[in-house]
Specification:
With about 325 residues, this protein is an alpha/beta fold. The protein has ten helices and 13 strands. Bound molecules: iron/sulfur cluster.
Length: about 325
């Protein structure tokens, strides 16, 4: 058996920043530190932080007045910021800057009177947050068919934005349909999807052509991990989205396969290594790393963590 570890894989700059922010917040402010939604969509990361004293909530009513509250990498709507201010919560904003950029664009378009087409998945934390910037001016489009069916009152004042973790290919199809239907629509086709999502998709697409099996390490609710699995599957390769080594069906291997292992942007490298190690032990697999594109992106920690007092009622 040969294992190819696809690169880049695993933690992106936004996830690194969010995880480090929560670790530092617990260290500096003590527990509990409340987190609005999961810090990132990964069961290992969430469970580790639960053990350290983080409390994950889906409703700010569960957070006692004056507590420390961290916003996850996926960001929050202005309404959540307003409620946090009302409850005098000390906010640590670990929203990924690339998500913040989408929020700013949504707010900017709405101010100028545009209707915003948000391409994304209903119910995803990032989508809920961005739609909250201009709920009355935003329409969610999930599929090319949604785009075909769309009707808007003023096609001359139309903008599109995308969830950062979509399939690059699928988003392009939807954007193209929107452009055909609404020639004056504005948006940024080149960096519609974030660098980490694009790079991980490019790597798995390229390497899956050599694979008999692709293992995508990531949790079932991780959007970018799901997209990696879909992409490898679309290349015609047997693909499994696995949370960790316990999900690997060892009996399905014969022992001579080439196995590509990748990981979604929220999946820890330690879990990837455990998965590879299991196949090494069982099948004597040889492990090789193959990096399609280098990444040197990092994001600064939230300003709140530069001093220990927190930003009460930050909006
Ligand atoms: S996947 Fe992209 S947008 Fe999401 S946290 Fe990572 S870098 Fe930020």
């Amino acid at each position: 058996m040969q294992i190819i570890l696809a690169g880049p894989r695993g933690f992106c700059a936004g996830v690194n920043m969010a995880i480090e922010s929560l670790r530092l917040a617990i260290e500096r402010f003590g527990t509990p530190v409340y987190v609005y939604h999961e810090i990132v969509h990964n069961t290992w990361v969430v469970e580790d932080f639960r053990r350290l004293g983080a409390v994950f909530v889906d409703d700010l009513a569960q957070v006692p007045r004056g507590s420390h509250l961290l916003y996850s990498a996926h960001g929050v709507s202005p309404e959540i910021r307003r409620m946090a201010a009302e409850r005098e919560l000390a906010v640590i904003d670990a929203t990924c800057p690339l998500v913040t950029k989408v929020h700013r664009e949504a707010a900017g378009y709405a101010r100028k009177g545009y209707t915003i087409i948000l391409i994304g998945h209903a119910g995803h934390d990032e989508v809920i947050g961005v739609m909250g910037e201009a709920p009355d001016a935003t329409v969610l489009v999930q599929t090319p068919e949604d785009a075909d069916r769309l009707s808007v009152s003023d096609p001359d004042k139309l903008a599109y934005l995308t969830q950062t973790t979509l399939s690059v290919d699928r988003a392009s199809v939807i954007i193209e349909r929107l452009r055909q239907k609404f020639p004056k629509i504005v948006g940024r086709p080149k960096d519609a999807i974030c660098y980490a999502t694009s790079n991980r998709q490019e790597a798995v697409r390229t390497l899956s052509r050599e694979a008999d099996v692709v293992l995508v390490v990531g949790s079932a609710n991780s959007s970018n991990s799901q997209r990696l699995a879909e992409l490898a599957s679309a290349e015609g390769v047997a693909t499994h989205l696995i949370d960790g080594p316990g999900d690997i069906d060892l009996d399905s291997f014969e022992g001579g396969e080439t196995v590509v292992i990748t990981a979604g942007a929220s999946a820890p490298e330690s879990v990837v290594q455990q998965c590879a190690e299991l196949l090494v032990q069982r099948f004597g697999a040889a492990v090789e790393s193959r990096t399609i594109r280098q990444e040197q992106v990092s994001f600064p920690l939230p300003k709140t963590l530069e001093n220990t007092s927190g930003m009460r009622g930050q909006r």
